[in-house]
Each structure stands twice: as structure tokens, then as C-alpha cells.
């Protein structure tokens, strides 16, 4: 009977270690990325910035409103006897170059908004992938903890039965209860981690108040599709972030030119219709003189005689902002290849770790469990030693999953490394 119990426990260890599966799931990684690109609120907000940029461009190119005016001179209580009436139209024009530079700056702003959307799509895809992998890891950890608790519950019942039959000591019963309590605590922590990971993914996907997600993909290894030299060649391609920096430089150049023109005078032209009474000759037939209808034109200039400091201050601000934009672009160009090399090194290091667990650590841990189960069946190994061996093997499986998680997230970071920039310890 004792040999049968030992064989049953050993078989249970092997079955739980080698043959645990997963529930049916429905959302693939590609579907998650596509869903986020459709529903993520941050992306929707960024797309509205494009529409706002188009409005700013139209506003920047608009002419000042025309002015219709009328003048009544020598007014008496009887408007019909007003001696002088003038009705006209006046249109203001900016100094040549102001309007075109303002339009060019607004157009660069609209281009930046479009590039920000493209950049955000890449960053969002990377964030969804990492969150998806985090959920897969949390699911595997939860499944492992659930199986571990199930095994510990079976061991606790078996140990109690053996103690009642005199085949085990009370110390074994206490140890099994302690291990079961520890396993349940780890299970509760794993459940919290799974809920947190799922909530984070729901936020990225723009899901609210919907049933829990079921993920169909798994943590699976896939080698890099290109050799190292080809991957590093991507560092020279114009990423969306670099184009944003270049467009910002162009916008600041236009802003500087506009500030330099701020002190130049604007002008306006107008035309009017005039009716003037009491004009000579004065005769007995027309003692009040003649009434003359005429057309007039006018032109005016704005002279910033008492506002010389404002254009100088605007030019200084624009010059400083242009210099900062140019330095930011130059620093990005210096940093981008180094960032690619660091990200690629992280992928290669994680890949080596995956290979180590797949080909060395995991097979050795499974062989150790097989040997421990055989030794326990023959009475050469204590139950606690078998439990320690299983715990070590289970931890090896979790570490293998974590190594896969690290590798896949490192690949996601590599795909988006050209859209990230660190300056003064801040993420741009």
C-alpha cells in the first residue's frame, strides 16, 4: 500500500510538471495590435491634432479682415442737411514675407502632428506587444501556481493519511501545511499580477466594461529575421521622430524669420465715395454752393516708433529656440546608432538566456524530477526532498518563460528604438 501511495505521488509530480495545458483563448497578438490602433484614446487625440494643424495653417494664411467705414462731418439735428458724407473700404496688408513665413511655420506644425501620429502608432504597437507578453507570463505563472497548490493539497491529504496510519511523522504534516499556506499566498499574488496586467492591456486597447480577454498566442521563441548588420542599417533610416526634429528646426527657422520681420511696417489701402456740399461757386441761384460727388483713395503705414523692444525680444527668443531645435536634432543623430546597438545587444543577451534554459536548464531539471520520482518510489528519497526537487523544476519552467518574455519584450523595444530619445533623463 505504501509503495502504491509513493508511486501515485511520483506520477502526479511528473504529470503536473510535464503535461499541464492552457485554456481555450481567442485574441491573438496581431488582433490586439490592430484593436489598439483602432480604439486607443491617445491615438484618437493625436489624430485630432492633425485636424487642428490644418485649421492653424488656414488661419495663418488668412488676410486681415477688411474694414468698411463711413464718416459724417458737420452733423446737425437733421441728417439730411449733413454737409459731408464719406463711405469707404479699407484693407490691411502685412509686410512681404510675414504671411508666407507664418504659413510655412503652420505647415511644419501640421507635418509634425502627422509624424506624431505615425510615431505614436509604432510606440503603441510596441507597448501592446509588451503588455500582451506580460499577460502571457502572468497567465503561465498563475497556471503554475494553481497546479502547485493542487499538488500541495493532495500531498497534505496524503501526509495526513500516512500520519494517521503511523507511516509519517507529525513534522511531515506540519511541513505540508506550511507549504500549502505558502503556495496559496503565492497563488493570491499571481492572481493580483494577472489582474493588473490585464487591466493595463485593456487600457491600451481602449476597452472598458467588457468581458476579460482570452489570449490565443503563447510565449514562443522566434529568431531575428535579419542578420546583425542589416538590423543596424535601420539606424540610418529617417524615423518619424527624426523627421519631427527636422520639421521642428524648419518651423523655428520660419519663426525666426517672422520675428525678424516683426519690426517692418505693415500697410493698408482704401477707397471711398465722398459727397461734399457748399463748394464754390456761390451764386444767387445756388447761394449754398454746389454739391460734389467724388472718389478718394488712401494709403497708410504702421511705424513701430515706440515698440522697438518687442521685435528684438521676439527675435532673441526665436533664435534661442532654433538653436535648441538644431542641437536636439544633432544629438538625436549621435544617439540613434548607439541606441540601436544597445537594444540589439539586449536582444542577443536575452536570446542566449532562452537558449540556455531551453537546451540545458529545463532538460536537466526534468531529468532531476524523473530521477527523484524513481528514488521516492523505491524508498530512497523523502517526500520533502521530492517536493524540493519539484519546486526547483517548476521554478526552472517559470524562469524559462521569463527568459522568453525578456527576449520578446527586447525585440519589441528594438522595433521602436528609433522613436525614442532621451535628453536630460527624460523620454521625448
What can you see in these coordinates?
Strand 5 and strand 6 (426-427) form a beta hairpin. The protein is α+β, with helices and mostly antiparallel strands. Helix 4 packs antiparallel against helix 7 (240-260) and helix 8 (309-377) runs antiparallel to helix 9. The chain is 65% helix and 11% strand. The relative contact order is 0.14. The two termini are 68 Å apart. The chain has helices at residues 2-18, 29-39, 41-60, 98-164, 170-205, 228-233, 240-260, 309-377, 383-415; strands at residues 67-73, 84-93, 267-279, 290-301, 422-423, 426-427. It has a single domain (2-427), classed as Outer membrane efflux proteins (OEP), CATH 1.20.1600. The model is unreliable at 19-25 (pLDDT under 50). The strands form two sheets. It has a four-stranded antiparallel β-sheet, with no helix packed on it. A two-stranded antiparallel sheet has the order 5-6.
Amino acid at each position: 500500500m505504501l509503495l502504491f501511495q509513493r508511486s501515485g505521488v511520483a506520477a502526479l509530480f511528473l504529470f503536473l510538471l510535464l503535461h499541464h495545458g492552457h485554456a481555450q483563448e481567442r485574441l491573438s497578438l496581431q488582433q490586439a495590435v490592430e484593436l489598439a490602433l483602432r480604439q486607443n484614446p491617445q491615438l484618437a487625440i493625436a489624430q485630432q491634432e492633425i485636424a487642428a494643424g490644418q485649421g492653424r495653417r488656414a488661419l495663418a494664411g488668412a488676410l486681415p479682415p477688411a474694414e468698411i467705414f463711413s464718416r459724417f462731418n458737420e452733423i446737425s439735428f437733421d441728417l439730411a442737411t449733413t454737409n459731408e458724407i464719406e463711405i469707404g473700404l479699407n484693407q490691411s496688408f502685412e509686410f512681404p514675407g510675414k504671411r508666407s513665413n507664418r504659413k510655412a511655420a503652420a505647415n511644419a506644425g501640421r507635418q509634425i502632428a502627422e509624424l506624431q501620429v505615425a510615431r505614436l502608432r509604432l510606440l503603441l504597437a510596441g507597448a501592446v506587444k509588451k503588455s500582451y507578453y506580460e499577460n502571457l507570463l502572468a497567465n503561465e505563472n498563475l497556471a503554475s501556481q494553481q497546479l502547485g497548490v493542487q499538488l500541495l493539497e493532495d500531498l497534505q491529504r496524503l501526509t495526513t493519511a500516512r500520519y494517521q496510519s503511523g507511516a509519517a511523522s507529525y513534522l511531515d504534516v506540519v511541513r505540508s501545511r506550511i507549504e500549502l499556506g505558502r503556495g496559496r499566498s503565492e497563488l493570491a499574488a499571481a492572481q493580483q499580477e494577472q489582474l493588473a496586467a490585464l487591466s493595463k492591456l485593456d487600457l491600451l486597447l481602449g476597452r472598458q466594461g467588457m468581458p476579460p480577454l482570452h489570449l490565443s498566442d503563447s510565449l514562443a521563441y522566434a529568431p531575428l529575421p535579419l542578420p546583425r548588420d542589416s538590423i543596424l542599417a535601420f539606424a540610418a533610416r529617417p524615423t518619424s521622430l527624426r523627421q519631427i526634429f527636422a520639421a521642428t528646426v524648419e518651423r523655428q527657422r520660419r519663426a525666426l524669420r517672422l520675428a525678424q520681420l516683426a519690426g517692418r511696417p505693415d500697410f493698408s489701402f482704401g477707397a471711398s465715395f465722398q459727397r461734399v456740399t457748399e463748394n464754390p461757386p456761390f451764386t444767387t441761384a445756388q447761394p449754398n454752393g454746389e454739391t460734389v460727388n467724388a472718389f478718394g483713395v488712401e494709403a497708410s503705414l504702421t511705424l513701430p516708433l515706440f515698440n522697438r523692444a518687442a521685435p528684438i525680444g521676439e527675435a532673441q527668443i526665436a533664435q534661442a529656440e532654433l538653436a535648441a531645435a538644431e542641437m536636439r536634432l544633432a544629438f538625436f543623430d549621435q544617439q540613434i546608432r548607439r541606441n540601436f546597438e544597445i537594444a540589439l545587444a539586449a536582444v542577443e543577451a536575452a536570446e542566449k538566456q532562452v537558449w540556455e534554459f531551453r537546451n540545458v536548464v529545463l532538460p536537466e531539471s526534468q531529468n532531476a524530477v524523473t530521477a527523484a520520482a524513481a528514488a521516492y518510489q523505491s524508498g530512497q528519497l523523502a517526500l520533502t526532498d521530492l517536493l524540493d526537487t519539484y519546486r526547483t523544476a517548476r521554478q526552472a519552467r517559470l524562469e524559462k518563460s521569463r527568459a522568453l518574455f525578456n527576449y520578446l519584450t527586447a525585440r519589441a523595444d528594438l522595433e521602436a528604438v528609433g522613436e525614442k530619445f532621451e535628453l536630460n533623463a527624460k523620454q521625448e
